[in-house]
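Hi there,

I know you've been waiting on this one. I reran it after we fixed the sequence typo, so this is the corrected version. Both the input and the resulting structure follow.
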Amino acid sequence: MKTIKVQNLEISNNNPFALIAGPCQMESRDHAMMMCEQLKELTTRLNIPFIYKTSYDKANRTSLTATRGIGLEKAMSVFDELRDQFDVPCLTDIHTAEQCAIVANHVDVLQIPAFLCRQTDLLVAAAQTGAVINVKKGQFLAPWDMKNVVEKEHGTAHNIYSEDFSMAGKTGTVRTEYWFDDWASNKRYISSFTGYFPAENPKYSCIVVIHKPDTKTGFYGADVSGPVFKDIAQKIYTSNHIINKIKKKIPEFRTVQNSFNSYYTISNKEFNSIPSVKGMVAMDAIPLLENIGLKVKFNGSGKVIEQSINAGEKLIKGATIILKSI
């Protein structure tokens, strides 16, 4: 039986009932804090595992005049405060692929709205964040359609893909030392990847656990431990000459640390002109561009292949740049 970990909660058919509850939309910071405080007190008293749910934008309102929430930009800091003050995991809806990487840094569960559960780009982008995903009202779909949804969301381990041989596994990201007073300002995680290869006829298994990775360079298991697992698998296959049985030439690959250093060397620069983000994945490219004052629109999922403002052009803060990926 599969078990889903959300912070320190374990959710499965074999575990106690867990409650996902909260206001339909985030009306204000004070309202969100008040609702979460009361729900946390109630569920703690009843010993019920609890995930706080609210939406920063209810985009499915039938009326143009209906209230929808306080919006993405204002809501992210509120989610941070909710998680830190009440020590509860948070869930919110996402509606577009470009929102996924941004929102996943501030909540624990990304929820796919009922009528968006067939949207490939949204599902893949959500999976690539490494966050837990909740497909709302999956009963809208036939069982054979739900299978396709799950296959689109397999991407928490997208970093271990290889054209030469198959690998499979499960990522893990948990908070640690969150009981210390300084956790909010110095967040610490344990990132893991447990996998085996070849996937169709396993011969090797491996567990990679990284304690307290540098959060400035990433902390999700998919981003930190997954690439290390892949490097180990590539090395074992190469050393045992198994790779020679494959007709395709092994593509060159970088170590996870080199990948991190490349990105974060760029992100720490002072920019007067537009940087090139071609070849970067969305979850790296979007925050980099936003941090230097640009508004970002993102079409597709995966690595960036085009950017609407060319590298080297003068940086105008507040301008909108459109990224396109494969």
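Quick highlight: The domain at 4-156 is CATH 3.20.20.70 (TIM Barrel).

Best,
R. S.
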